[in-house]
């Protein structure tokens, strides 16, 4: 396939294929395809965890009526760590729930904190939603030090990439019963049946389905059509990957 000039993915992350792209071939990612779907799942995992939905499902299986008091999303401070297209979509969906949203990006800008400010931001956050790309900078970002800075009772939501979180450190943190987590991505993937993460308390796991919804295909079709038009017209392509971003 020496005539290949462009590779267009339907994924936002390209860490699994970047090293396989020959020199001189343009790599474009699927940024914009999964924004709505992934943002919906981030909100779903957050609400389900805060309102205790997994416990209600287990109680339903036992035919038990288990009323109780649960935290609301309203008035919670939510860090959105990663403020690209998906991060902004998450923010837009959190706002109607009356949450106090704090955006965090690789570099600070007006209204957005820099990732280097996390040590100061984490102790004040009730919910931390991860939606960063997997890069050398973000791999292992959430380690024991990060988790120890989270406030008691805080919720970690990962809809980014599994290796952004050090899995053993997350297992250890959950075992203390001090924080909870909801993850759509894990490391390793798929998670082996005997992995201790399955048995961790206060954890909700979904099987990497952030983009797997009916919202994906109309957006994918629009992107591919537009890219083909650009290519045929000799115009610059969208979503060209440069470096790790």
UniProtKB/TrEMBL annotation:
What are the protein's GO molecular function terms?
NAD binding; oxidoreductase activity, acting on the CH-OH group of donors, NAD or NADP as acceptor
Which residue intervals define the domain D-isomer specific 2-hydroxyacid dehydrogenase NAD-binding in the entry?
Answer: 44-210
KW NAD (keyword) present: yes
The protein's matches in PROSITE patterns, at most eight in alphabetical order, are given as: D_2_HYDROXYACID_DH_2 (PS00670), D_2_HYDROXYACID_DH_3 (PS00671)
Give the matching Pfam families. 2-Hacid_dh_C (PF02826)
Which UniProt keywords are given for this protein, alphabetically ordered?
NAD, Oxidoreductase
Which PANTHER family does UniProt cross-reference here? Answer: 2-HACID_DH_C DOMAIN-CONTAINING PROTEIN, D-ISOMER SPECIFIC 2-HYDROXYACID DEHYDROGENASE NAD-BINDING DOMAIN-CONTAINING PROTEIN
Protein name, per record? Dihydrofolate reductase
Q: What is the native source organism of this protein?
A: Nocardioides silvaticus
């Amino acid at each position: 396939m020496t005539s290949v000039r462009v590779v267009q993915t339907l994924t936002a992350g390209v860490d699994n294929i970047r090293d396989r792209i020959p020199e001189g071939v343009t790599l474009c990612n699927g940024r914009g395809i999964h924004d709505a779907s992934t943002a919906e799942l981030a909100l779903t995992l957050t609400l389900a965890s805060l309102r205790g939905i997994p416990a209600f499902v287990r109680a339903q299986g036992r035919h038990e009526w288990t009323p109780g008091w649960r935290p609301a999303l309203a008035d919670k401070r939510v860090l959105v760590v990663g403020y690209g297209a998906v991060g902004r979509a998450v923010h837009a969906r959190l706002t109607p729930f009356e949450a106090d949203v704090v955006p965090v990006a690789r570099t600070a800008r007006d209204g957005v904190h820099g990732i280097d400010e996390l040590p100061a931001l984490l102790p004040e956050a009730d919910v931390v939603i991860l939606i960063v790309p997997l890069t050398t900078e973000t791999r292992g970002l959430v380690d024991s030090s990060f988790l120890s800075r989270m406030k008691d009772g805080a919720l970690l939501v990962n809809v980014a990439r599994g290796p952004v979180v050090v899995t053993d450190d997350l297992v250890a943190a959950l075992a203390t019963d001090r924080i909870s987590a909801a993850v759509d991505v894990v490391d390793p993937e798929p998670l082996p049946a005997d992995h201790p993460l399955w048995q961790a308390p206060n954890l909700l796991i979904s099987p990497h389905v952030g983009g797997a919804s009916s919202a994906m295909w109309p957006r994918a079709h629009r992107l591919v059509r537009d890219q083909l038009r650009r290519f045929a017209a000799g115009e610059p392509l969208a979503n060209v990957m440069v470096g790790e971003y």
